[in-house]
Design a protein that fits this description.
Helix content is 36%, strand content 16%. It is α/β, with parallel strands linked by helices. Helix 1 runs antiparallel to helix 2 (56-68) and helix 3 (77-94) runs parallel beside helix 4 (116-124).
């Protein structure tokens, strides 16, 4: 199986503990996983190819790398998404049949880097194939004192996964 990539964007992994390990053990054989840590700015991506046979060693490497990440700095969600879409665009140029998904792990407070207007302009400039990659945000607990208030506000809105993605500009 070729062409699967998951640029995962861990921002604030505080409190994720074992549940994060469980999520990383669910990758399928033949998939490609790219972890893109970010805080104040996007970090360096690290890609793992999960072999179709005997994937255990690579899954352990993914878990070890994820465990080595620690929270710090601010949260540049839109800048990290721009980086993830650039990774996907590069991968799709090499493999047009690739199926890509972005899983965004964050404390949910974009407070550095690109703002929504800048990200929207960037997103609308993407070719259709990489822009079609869905984003699945997952909110992680934060050490930020206002997180509980922010969490309460989030709970009054629909689940981020069910929110519509940014639509393509029909022009």
């Amino acid at each position: 199986m070729t062409g699967y990539s998951y640029p995962v964007l861990p921002a604030d992994l505080t409190g994720a503990g074992r549940s994060l390990k469980t999520r990383f053990s669910q990758f399928q054989q033949g998939e490609q996983v790219t972890l893109l840590p970010f805080s104040t700015t996007p970090g360096q991506p690290r890609t793992f190819d999960v072999p179709e046979r005997n994937p255990g060693m690579v899954l352990t490497q993914i878990r070890s790398y994820a465990d080595s990440l620690s929270p710090g700095g601010w949260t540049a969600i839109y800048s990290a998404l721009e980086s993830a879409y650039r990774i996907i665009a590069h991968q799709m140029a090499a493999d047009p049949n690739r199926i890509a998904t972005i899983v965004l792990l964050t404390d949910g407070e974009n407070n550095r880097g690109a703002d929504l207007a800048a990200f929207s302009a960037f997103y609308h400039s993407l070719p259709e194939a990489p822009a079609s990659a869905p984003v699945f945000p997952r909110r992680m607990p934060s050490r930020w004192p206002g997180w509980q208030r922010s969490r309460a506000a989030m709970s009054s809105t629909p689940d981020p996964v069910t929110r519509p993605r940014i639509p393509r500009d029909p022009r």
